[in-house]
Every structure is written in C-alpha cells, then in structure tokens.
Specification:
This protein has 309 residues and is mostly helical. The protein has 14 helices and two strands. The chain has helices at 2-6, 8-37, 54-57, 62-94, 101-109, 116-127, 132-150, 172-197, 200-208, 213-224, 226-241, 245-250, 258-266, 272-308, and strands at 39-41, 47-49.
Length: 309
Amino acid sequence: MEDFRRNLRVFLAFFTPSFGWLALFFLAPLVIIFLYSVGETVSLTEVKTTWTFANYARLTEPEIVTLFIRSLWLAGISTVICLLVGYPVALVIATAPPKWKPWLLLIVILPFWTNLLIRTYALLNILGTRGRVNDLFEWIWVQADGALRFVGLGEYQLLGEEYEPIVFLGRWSGVIIGLVYVHLPFTVLPIYAALERLERSYLEASLDLGAGQWRTFRSILLPMTMVGVITAAIITFIPMLGSYLTPALLGRGQVDMIANVIERQFKGANDWPFGAAMSLFLLYVTFIILALQAIAAMRRSRLRGREHG
C-alpha cells in the first residue's frame, strides 16, 4: 500500500489507459445492452427504455427453458468428452521427453492458426452424408460384405442391401463433435500446466509402496491436478455455452443453442430487448460459474493454510 501511494502518478499512468479501454469497449456496451433489456421496441429501429422486466420474465417460457437446458446439456456433454480425451493427451505431453514436448504442444495449438470458419467448413466436408467419415464406413461395409460372401454368409444379407450413410449434420451428435474439436485445446493446456507442476516423487512413492497404476492415478495424480481439471472444465464449458458458429453450421437450424436464438432476435425477429435479456442472462450464468470457482479456490487455499499452520 505504501508503494502504491508513493508511486501514485506511475500507477495512474498505467491504470488510466487500461481502465479507459475497459470502460469504453466493455462497460459501456454492457450498459447499453442492459438498457435494451429493460426496454421495448417502439419502431423498426428504435428501442425505448421503459424499465420493464417483461423481457426477463419471458425467459421462463417453456421453449426458452428447453433451449437453455439443451445448451447446458450439449456444453456439459462436450466438456466431459474434452476432459476424458484431454487428460490422457496432456499426460502424454507432460511425460514425453523434453525434446518432444514443444512439438506435441505445437500439434495441440496448431488448429488455432486456422480460422474457425474454415475449420468448421472442413468438418462439414468430413461429417457430411458423402463426407470422409461416411466414405470410410462405406468402404468398411463393402469389405465386410465381401468377406461374408466369401465365407458363404452373404446370402443371408447380414449387412443389408447397401450402406446407409450416418447422418451427423443437423443432429446433436454433429454439434458435439464440432464443439469438442474446437475447444479441446482449451482443455489440454491447463491440465498440462498442472501436470508439469506436479512433484513426480509422489507418484514414484505410491508405486514403490505397492499401489497399482489405476490406484496411483485415482488417489495421487488426479487429486493433485484437480485444480487444473477444474480450470480446464470452466474455460471449456463457458465458451461452449455461448458457441454460435459451430451449432449454426453443424446443427443446420435443427439443433440450436442460446447464441443462435440470440442472433435471430437481433436480426430476423427485430426483438432487441428480448435478445439483450437473453445475452445478459447468459452473462449472469457465466459470472455465477466463475464466482463459484473463486469461492471454491478460496476455501481450498484456507484449508491448505490451516494444514500448514
């Protein structure tokens, strides 16, 4: 505190531009959106602030509640898949030889070098009914059918007449695949950072004392890296919850998430007050999640302080 007061001018010199930037491009837009959310549309291009909360009351309508539940479910399932896939990947990178770690991390970060729109269009080519995945499955189908005919079982038509393509686009499965693909690096990197800080002697001691690989993972490795796992889950789940492009392209209008409906309120429906209310509600959910994570971190810090005290 003494250093702060002694160098007040220096502090203000750094603080003022940063605060001005945040106030102009973060706080001011939030205030405008809030004023829209408590207003009414009075013409095609005008929204009047009437301080009504009817737009927030509309959030309890059954179709909107269903939309939020669907968005939470898709984001939650995708986050769980990212954790199940990302933890082993992060573990492999953390235990790799030092000369290979930069290259493995580069592979994880490499998708960020390509625009998200281009990557999503690539997924359209991969997951389409005539995409690469269905081409592979059709080839396997043909080979299996040929093998059955070779052993004399083809006449029973165990595999049917012809291959039926698997439909991913316009279904929740395609949206989940897209969400996992886009956000998986956000899961891998925090877990990798937690694994890098881990003291390896605890694992060696557990194995030396007779604990197996699974028990060492469950009792030592996972609890000691749980902070990284929780961080990864939060920074993966929150962007997923507000995803727009992935469900818009892969969902084909059949699997909407919150951001897709918000976009239609501002464009197609011209209902800016309701779109603003939905946007702020999504922001409230995000703040609640971050607040709960901060409270949990404070409690963990206090418990560690008591143990060391």
